[in-house]
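The freezer alarm interrupted the setup, so I double-checked each line after restarting. Inputs confirmed:
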Amino acid sequence: MIPGGGGAAAPARPVPRDALRRQAPYLFGLAPAAILLAAFFVGPALWAAYASLTNTALVGIDAARPRFVGLANYERLLGDPDFANVIRNSVVFVVGSAVIGQFVLGLSLALLIDHAERRGYRLATLAYAAVLLAWVNPTVIAGFLWVAMFDFYNGSLNTGLALAGTGPVDWLGQFPMLSVVIANTWRGAAFTMLIFLGALKTIPSDIYEAARVDGANAWRRFWDHTLPSLRPIGALALLSITMSTFGTFILIQTLTNGGPGTQTEVIALYAFHEAFRSYAIGYGSAIAVVMLLINFAFAIVYLRWSRARA
Amino acid sequence: MTAVGPQAAVQVDIPPPIRPRERGTPLEWALMHLAFVAIAAFFLAPFVWLFAAAFDAEATAYIRVPGRLTLDNFTYIFRELAFAKALANSAIVAGATTLLVVLTVTLAGYGLSRLELRRKGWITFAVLLLQTMPLSATMVPIYGLARLLGLRNSYLGLILIHAAIELPFLVWLMKGFFDSVPRQLEEAAWLDGRSKLRALFEIVLPVARPGIAVAAGLSFISAWAEVLMVIILVDKQDMKTVPLAFYETFRTAGGYVEVQYGLVAAMGVLYLLPVMAVFFATRRLMVRGLVSGTKGL
Amino acid sequence: MTRTIDRRTFLKAAAATGIVVACGGDQGAPAGGGGTAKGTISGTVTVSYADEAGLKPKYVQLAADGLRAKYSGVDVKIDHQKIGSGDFYTKLLLALNAGDVPDVIHVGGDKIGELADAGHIEPLDGYLKQWEDWSKVYPDAVKSGVTYQGKVWAIPYGLDTRFLFYRKDVLDKAGVGATWTGPKNVDDILEVAKAVKSKVAGVIPYALYAGPAGDSGTANHAFIPLLWAYGGDLQKDGKWIGDSPALRKVLDYYGRTYRQDLSPKEILTTAKPWTAMREKLGLKGELALLFEGAWNYGGWVTKDKAATERNVGYALFPTATGGPSFTIGGPGTAWYVTAKSKNKDAAWEFVKAFNTKEIVAKLNIEDPHPVARTDSAEVAEFKADKYLVDSTESLKKARFAPPDANFGKVIGVIQKATARVATGEMSADDAAKRYTDELRQAVGADKVITQ
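Predicted 3D structure, all chains:
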């Protein structure tokens, strides 16, 4: 909206000098953030993009005399069977812990707690606080806590199983992906829960009243009215947690560091290992660039989808 | 990305409609309370170990009933491991980062929201995408840059980088928030004769308070937890923050003995409490802010 | 608005330039020799090292004090990082690449090749010519351990050797006998492990390092000795050996070990599994067999000398067919002078100040390693310690990994292959074929042969 004017759209031609002066304050407002982002994100991203086209390393002859190798790193990546495994692991991890785990669990929690508030059940607050605590604690602690839970010999989970009479489960050894999915779901459910809770509170109650008058039962009310109202915000939450889960790293590193062998080696961890265990910076950067491109693809899909709805 | 318009702003301010309390059936009561107990148990279970081990004289990596209760773990980390300094460093860095972030993202979010630019959507999108830049790609260049600017082993460096990490998501969030605050508010103020800046502070910001609370809360939590950037920036013992101390202690064995789990747990407990406090203090504002911020998108 | 853009562009340009300069490196590094202008020794020397066990700091301090006493104009800044050597090395590399250069560094002697190729370290031959000790008390075998491309790059002091440690009390309970002095051949190790598994509850039979979690231990303390035991080798005529009959047997051994649950899967996921394993064997008696660095014995003795001597036995590693036992040796952690140091002469003086007969002897008595200097080995306390004497003797039967700049990369390939077989992801034969492919990728196809 142009200040003072009618509902004209933003100008589609080069902005005249007068308009520039008008815009200046906003640009100044952007400046501090822009500088920080340029220095610590854009700059390094460009550096990484360049590095991915070289064979630079932290040590060895490639450290002293790195060569420009063009797309060789990318070719190697695409042909590497380990990479296919890494992508597979990443997809499983994201679907498992973000889509099924955090999203569905978060939504369910939000619905439960919202419903409980309407009924006046106080115990909901305890559950609410517990979920938040899991989210708010620093990641290094979270990883540590779950190592203790999953430990084979005397971990909390196996101790509980022993009390129940069954034998211990080798969580991290035999079910590494399941274990990290559980830990990550535990960690991130709060975010979606918060978003949905807030969204649920702003759904006007007259919709429900109208539906009830119409004779719809609780389930219908939920399916036909609640869910659609939540859809836009849900899509946003889904995009957000997909992108951030894709980059999860410390939690998995602490629990399995890629799993026995490579069973939980997700892409963020793979990039880290190549860069800081094998010291192959060029190759590690190529992996990072691929990660960025994949996220870019996610975001485009979301944008298309959200534009279509609006 | 259309703004929802005045409706949204108005709705945010009015407290949520009080729905009539309907009594549920006893079965419903039982099932729901069962669910709550199960949920609380699942989410709290790992912390049981933390608190048990912190007070355990011979703590282990797995949960056990403490044989001997003690406060020794706590006194040890303060006496021998300079935990007080690490805690102080964390507090200083997280606090200053929060201030810097709030200032920066408010200005940037407002600016981006009010800016007239054809491809503005793309910029917003690009900013958010930056968030997904993986650490391993940026560790080496940031190390070089930090060294070049003299930011290593300094509070300034830690604060700047901790702040930068939070920017993409929060700028995006604040922009969305400001989008839902109608321009009429500022325009009315300009027509009244106030300058742009005054209008911003006196009229717009009060409306934006929930969003600012979100930014503050989220950035504090993140800054408190950040470890990978600290690894790059710090190698002097007295500049360590707690996550780094934690990370190093966990990945290090003290000599020929395994990690001292009691000590690590004690550090964990002390580290957890402040962030819990901050979060619970601001949670109501934060929830409102999160919702309003994401609505305008 | 112009101001903003200028600032942004300037910062970006500065950053880009800075990084290119820092990472591009000084292409014209002077060729070896060191010890150019013999001016006065002064200025600051920064010494950077990692030590978790806490035994080295007092000796480093001693060396620093000695240096300050000898040259009044010298100051020594000690940067002691209390982190693991792996993490320390990564941080060090980041620092060296960015231009943050300490004068003296302390890392494994096996890193010589890769550090030299990267131009991070200074050859010491010039200095050595003027140091009597080098020609008098350092044996040729030790010297060749730190020689790469005809130059000497580091000064070792405590050499690495390894033993197969075993718990006498556990083996006794398993029916193997309290007088067991070592396996007859490699399969014997598995036989003993099986006996422990079936007869002694709550004890891990065997710890066979596999995968990246084991770090260099996967190669040095597990894979390589087995490869040699089966008659294979890492290199032949300067080329790396990929698939070979010996390799397949080694991978098969891994498969058998893990399939029969003789070695715990935790090794594959725990961070730094050796800390838990050594504590279990030496202090708790919860592990029966472990091939590890000889220096671990020192930690056990410090905790409980009597119990250790009673319960822990050590032997050399057997071959597949019952031939002469052997072990794997190494140059140990060594002292280097960095190539971009601004005070190389003083740095060298520090290295000399540390590597005196007394310091070398005393440190290696506390942290048991065979010594690099023959005169340190003659120190009475050293000669009186049976374990130290045995360790030094073992070096006579030790084989060494090739001092190759690509060794680090080969270790990575070894880790992947062992992990695949240990987790059961691949059969030994498939893993062997992948090993060759990955080896070619790591060091270049022209440097790999198969047998």
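Quick read of the result. The longest strand of chain C covers residues 43-50.
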